[in-house]
Amino acid sequence: MTENTLDTRIRLGMVGGGIGAFIGVVHRVAARMDDQFELVAGALSSSPDRAAESGRQLRIAPDRVYADYRDMAKAEAAREDGIQAVAVTTPNHLHFDNCCAFIDAGIHIICDKPVTFTADEARDLKVRAGAAGLQFIVTYNNTGYPMVREARAIVQAGRIGKVRLVQVEYAQDWLNEPIEREGHKQAEWRTDPSRVGMGACLGDIGTHAFNLAGYVTGLHLDAVVSEVSTFAEGRQMDDDVNVLLRYDNGARGSLWASQVAPGNENGLRLRVYGETGGVEWDGEVPNHLKVTEYGMPPVTLSRGGYGAGDAASRITRMPAGLPEGYLECFANTYLDAAELIHAALECRSPDPAATTVPQIDSGIEAQEFVEAVVRSSQAGGWVNVR
Amino acid sequence: MTENTLDTRIRLGMVGGGIGAFIGVVHRVAARMDDQFELVAGALSSSPDRAAESGRQLRIAPDRVYADYRDMAKAEAAREDGIQAVAVTTPNHLHFDNCCAFIDAGIHIICDKPVTFTADEARDLKVRAGAAGLQFIVTYNNTGYPMVREARAIVQAGRIGKVRLVQVEYAQDWLNEPIEREGHKQAEWRTDPSRVGMGACLGDIGTHAFNLAGYVTGLHLDAVVSEVSTFAEGRQMDDDVNVLLRYDNGARGSLWASQVAPGNENGLRLRVYGETGGVEWDGEVPNHLKVTEYGMPPVTLSRGGYGAGDAASRITRMPAGLPEGYLECFANTYLDAAELIHAALECRSPDPAATTVPQIDSGIEAQEFVEAVVRSSQAGGWVNVR
Amino acid sequence: MTENTLDTRIRLGMVGGGIGAFIGVVHRVAARMDDQFELVAGALSSSPDRAAESGRQLRIAPDRVYADYRDMAKAEAAREDGIQAVAVTTPNHLHFDNCCAFIDAGIHIICDKPVTFTADEARDLKVRAGAAGLQFIVTYNNTGYPMVREARAIVQAGRIGKVRLVQVEYAQDWLNEPIEREGHKQAEWRTDPSRVGMGACLGDIGTHAFNLAGYVTGLHLDAVVSEVSTFAEGRQMDDDVNVLLRYDNGARGSLWASQVAPGNENGLRLRVYGETGGVEWDGEVPNHLKVTEYGMPPVTLSRGGYGAGDAASRITRMPAGLPEGYLECFANTYLDAAELIHAALECRSPDPAATTVPQIDSGIEAQEFVEAVVRSSQAGGWVNVR
Amino acid sequence: MTENTLDTRIRLGMVGGGIGAFIGVVHRVAARMDDQFELVAGALSSSPDRAAESGRQLRIAPDRVYADYRDMAKAEAAREDGIQAVAVTTPNHLHFDNCCAFIDAGIHIICDKPVTFTADEARDLKVRAGAAGLQFIVTYNNTGYPMVREARAIVQAGRIGKVRLVQVEYAQDWLNEPIEREGHKQAEWRTDPSRVGMGACLGDIGTHAFNLAGYVTGLHLDAVVSEVSTFAEGRQMDDDVNVLLRYDNGARGSLWASQVAPGNENGLRLRVYGETGGVEWDGEVPNHLKVTEYGMPPVTLSRGGYGAGDAASRITRMPAGLPEGYLECFANTYLDAAELIHAALECRSPDPAATTVPQIDSGIEAQEFVEAVVRSSQAGGWVNVR
Predict the structure, then answer these.
(1) From the CB of residue B158, how many other CB atoms can be counted at a distance below 10 Å?
(2) For residues C199 and C92, is the Cβ–Cβ distance under 8 A?
(3) Ordered strands of the D136-138 beta sheet
(4) Mean pLDDT of D205-222
(5) Where are the beta strands (DSSP E) in A216-368?
(6) ipTM for the complex?
(7) Which residue, among A284, A254, A25, has the nearest Cα to A172 in the 3D structure?
(8) Is the pLDDT score of B292 beyond 80?
(9) Domain boundaries, position B371
(10) pLDDT score at A22
(11) Which of A225, C69, D220, D229 is within CB 3.0–4.6 Å of C43 for a Cys-Cys bond?
């Protein structure tokens, strides 16, 4: 069980995430769980009234509740007790400007995904953060599940041999009907091209699936062929995506993301097979990992249980059989972010294990994937990713 | 529980399926289970000695144990008590000639899959059998699982609305290593282009997956883009296939077949989603079917259980909770074959429910699929199926 | 895949099992599956008309269709080609007399369970069959599942250490309402004390659970305390049984059998734990076996898969992942019966592996269990089994 | 998603739970998750050095880090900003004295389970807290799982009819070997009669199982017969318990708790069957609930999904398919505790939904269960619980 035992907590600000915002609460609980962060400032809504009320409800000092994130970046940079990191939890179209402002103010970034509209913007942010010596964590949070870490450790240690096959999918059903036309707020912005960019289902959950496969295998994409579809009547953007994948080591595979698959809630599933074995993980049963050494019966590893290795143990909170869930995996992302930021503040090297947390490079790669999938769908054939 | 209560059983011959042949035993047990067939003749092996010994072991009268299938076709046609149907269980490359000989002899055909090397040959067989007024059943036996019938009935009754998405896969691991080079008989012929035709993994299990999706949805393919791969060292043919699917009603999907996915035994899984619901079936847990009506919690139907409909009940042998397996589903294919053949012999219309059993049209369509997948893989892009 | 390759099949008769009888069909399919038996005579119903019609439907020669089992025993004993074995598939109250008649006629017995009303009767049958040198198989058929054999082999080889704990249950829901009062035939006789003896749920499925635990562990009961209940309104007999178990080696456990547990179809589940490991098996997923070596992650063995041992392989028909079910396990019981009977006919020792099939001793022990449970329930405390 | 939006947080103290204590961290994370509590004081260890260091690590003001809980109770009662509630997280033998001290000081109690050594002590605490007008929550935290709340709502609304059967179990394997003799701290105190009272396995996890069954059904026990066993060599206390249950409404059932069942991590499972249906819940898959209406196929409800009712929704944090785990259920217990304490502080009635959280009455009933089980085991027969 991890718990902060340092003298200080990181002073955190938040952009977006005010009253009624789903992901804002998730970020706050994740930041709070291990007591590594203290939320002390916020520009929590683009509506000044909502920003103020959200600040009051979160017991943020009134002078640190801002109506505009630019003001916040400047004011906090000027304070001796100003924020050391900012959580960017706005809709996608605001991420780039949000991040630029806080990078300019010398503040470390924890940004929700997808990090930008384009790969170019993401590369731009990398340059800016790099130049400023700042950490830039992207909350592809599924990498924070202990058994995903375990899968990565197993695959990257060569225990399943050279990777041959990747099958990854993320299936939901909550957008099965065009509820964005009936005033459903989450559905509205997530299917609006002006707010999410090139891909809706593709950007929201397709990139989670893509990131997960890359995180576990360490592989990079060469080429894709895709089918991007819209099924719900009147929807402006994609709600289903099928992609064939060619990885740089010769591995082959497919990725499916859908928000119109009735009976699927949050079906993120990864299967990776190599020359001598395989790993299989299901995000709805995240505390287990099926591991096969070819020629032996499959073994089901359990988080905290016998046979689970260091990568999982490091971020395991509960004994085996007491389930951990989504908030814990998100908190693990924050835990690693805290380590990177602490190390930067203290001018020391971070714990190497913490550095696997997705950062701006993962954000860039995810945008390259989005762009390639869209190009393939438009062109009707295989396209190179880079 | 179905059991033959007719005065007579159908007199059955068998080509192939001698000592040591896996699928021959399966056909015989399937034919025997409901006591609808009596095995009375056979050309059980291309080796005369093995043919004779196999006939003896199966207690076939010595004068009806043949060394050559052509002799058998002629001799049986000439007998008053000659066979009424033949089970063709040879390797793929022999199917076409085998079938021609027995069609010429006026004998009904029960042929293992894939039915031929090419779609043209399959179309040829259709013409021949049609002209001779003969039944031609193809043992895509997974359609004989009661809950597959149930899925078909649900989908084709419109209970999940217009079909939008198809995800189907068949994953195995038994060819993970090139065991065909170490004398493994099953592996040898199944990876030998001269005996299996254009596709190995593709033809063997890819067509099972394709057939299953078509059987349940009633849809036909328009176009595919594919990636056909060979991973095991020195293997002559494909052992992994990924395909994106475009169906004629606008549905989209993907198909994955692999024989190099460690930890997968016979992972045939189908998921179909429509405008208002979905069905999910797993061939390793074949007695259950997940059915979702969008907006309601998913329901798990059980073979023989509450809520299972007529299509399943008709071929359900055991009460709910007493599992049925692969042999029972294969026997159901034989049961429907028996009904078609009895009806033909008696010049009556068969039970309509029996006519959904895969026949030569399914064989043709499967070969069209194989050819399109191979063309796409070679051409590197989308191809039309017809 | 097992298939009879002997010159001859065992000539089989059947008592009970006429039109409409569930278990008769099961016995016939089981006997037929491996082609080891040929059904040539029957006293298939106590109603002469039904007996005759059943015989006709099964294509038994008219002179070997009997209206009375006593006539059948005598007449078949007098024929040179008379039956060598008889399958007793009548309701429980007839078993004892049926068996006596065929033992007197020198015919081997395959009897459905429970074998008699009382342990004394069962012991009597043992003496009679022993004196006549006859085989007496009792179809506690769940012992015919390959992974039950595997569990037995693992436990009895000491791989989980000395057995400490047994948890076994058999839960159904088909008698949740008093359907015996609405003309349900199966329900009528199974809840009628004059036809089933001391225990209804207890005798029907409780003894299956008890037998399974004893088969796998090799342990014998010392004492029980029980609660025998009737929940359905107006029912004459028990429909739910809870028992605490004390085994002779110091192991402790509990057994639950119920026919009034909504949502349970045929939930036969066994868990056995020893000093160094455990095995868990579920009759609704019978092709798998969870095996734990303490201190290691659990392994799921699959019938036909890597790591499955000889005891399972011997009676495995299909490759891993192609499910086998209830009929196959019943057929395995018949396969072992065939080996015992063949050996007796040929005056040789049977294959030792076949001798684990439940025989009259298992029938005796099951009746002792029934009697002890009833006594404990009446007395209100612990009772010794013997 | 619940998040505190009140102006104030409850000022919380903690007794026990210093460095290295498992359950202390759980209580702190649970208290922190919804930001309803602020930890401001503690007597975190009986060792003064460890108490001081633990306080420092948790950033508690030095003058509120106490070496003795009695000093803490008095000092905090005297402060204007003194604690309003205390979390008692010491080993069992200290609970009674701890609670008395804080009740005397007028401080609300959140006490870990089992609440005392004897039912008499628990009744004494009830009288004391009642007289002082204080809330007394007992962290039988499994009642905080949303789908346990859902199960309770379904059963108590009569949707499965009158309850007939209860099957509940809690199986672990971490004490399979006598690790208390090798310096394992958790094992040491949990198997030491001077620290845990009458039951080890029985008190630790047996009472969780008992509490869960009572919470869901609303039933109370009349009588038990039990078998309490010790399997690990040299162990002083029980590590396995089997109990038959007679409830006051005529329902029957059994309870099994074990810490020596290899392959079981935290296997808390409850099944309840009534006249017209059943519910089944598994604590290792806590986000789902199987619900059967007799005569219909079973439905699997998902936390946050379609068909989940108000009782679950009220404490559901994440959308369906994003798993919640043990910490969230523990936090829900703290959330309800917060509501009860806020209401008491504000002299208002609490939200009725919050009042189902286990309180001192549950603590009393659990101790009565423990005492009855021990008596039955010693006496060798059925005993009445009260």
Answers:
(1) 13
(2) no
(3) D37-43, D10-15, D85-88, D108-111, D136-138
(4) 98
(5) 221-229, 240-247, 252-258, 267-274, 277-282, 288-293, 299-302
(6) 0.96
(7) A284
(8) yes
(9) 146-319+364-384
(10) 86
(11) C69
Same domain for C102 and C228, yes or no, is: no
Instruction: Give the DSSP letter of residue A350.
Output: P
Residue A263's closest CA among C93, B132, C229, B276?
A: B276
Cα distances (angstroms) measured from residue B69 to each of B42, B45, D24: 8, 9, 79
Q: Which tokens is C360 given? A: 């009259």
Tell me whether residue A108 is in a domain.
yes
Interface contacts C/D by beta carbons within 8 Å: 116
d(CA C269, CA C266): 9
Is A330 a domain residue?
A: no
Where a domain ends, among A93, A114, A134? Answer: A134
Question: Cβ separation of B299 and D295 shorter than 8 Å?
Answer: no
Looking at the fold, whether B226 and B370 belong to one and the same domain comes out as yes
- Tokens 């499972």 locate to D269
Pairwise CA distance, residues C306 & B207, whole Å: 26
Please report how many Cα atoms fall inside a 13 Å half-sphere around the Cα of residue C160, on the Cβ side: 30
Lowest mean pLDDT among B361-370, C166-175, D20-29, D275-284: D20-29
* Same domain as D36, residue D90: yes
Query: Are residues A103 and A187 located together in one domain of the fold?
Result: no
Nearest by CB: D273 against C164, C260, C278: C260
Mean pLDDT of chain C: 96
Out of B2-6, C209-213, C235-239, C262-266, least confident range: B2-6
- Token pair, residue C346, equals 């040929």
Tokens of C384: 């010794």
CB atoms within 10 A of CB D352: 7
Q: What is the pLDDT of residues A121-130, one digit of tens each?
A: 999 999 999 9
Same domain, A242 and A262: yes
Verify whether the Cβ–Cβ distance A265 to D5 is below 8 Å: no
Q: What is the DSSP letter of D66?
A: -
- Which of C250, C47, C271, C87 is closest to C168 using CA atoms? C271
- From B134, B168, B183, give the residue that closes a domain: B134
Q: How many domains does chain C have?
A: 2
B50 with B162, same domain: the answer is no
Are B245 and B273 part of one and the same domain? yes
Q: Is the pLDDT of residue B1 over 60?
A: no
**Nearest-CA neighbor of A311 among A92, A121, A144?**
A144
Residue with tokens 């508690």: D60
Query: Does residue B160 form part of some domain?
Result: yes
What residues in chain B have their Cβ under 8 A from chain A's Cβ atoms? 160, 164-165, 167, 169, 173, 176-177, 225-227, 229, 231, 240, 242, 244, 246, 252-254, 256, 258, 260-264, 271, 273-278, 280, 290, 292-294, 298, 380-382
- With beta carbons under 8 A apart, name residues in chain B contacting C288: none
Flag whether A353 is in a domain: no
Q: Are D372 and D385 in contact (CB under 8 A)?
A: yes
Burial of C134 (0-12, 13-18, 19+ CB in 10 A): buried
What CATH number is associated with residue C208?
A: 3.30.360.10
Residue D123's CATH number: 3.40.50.720
In terms of domains, do C227 and C305 share one?
yes
How far D205 CA sits from the closest chain A CA (Å)?
13
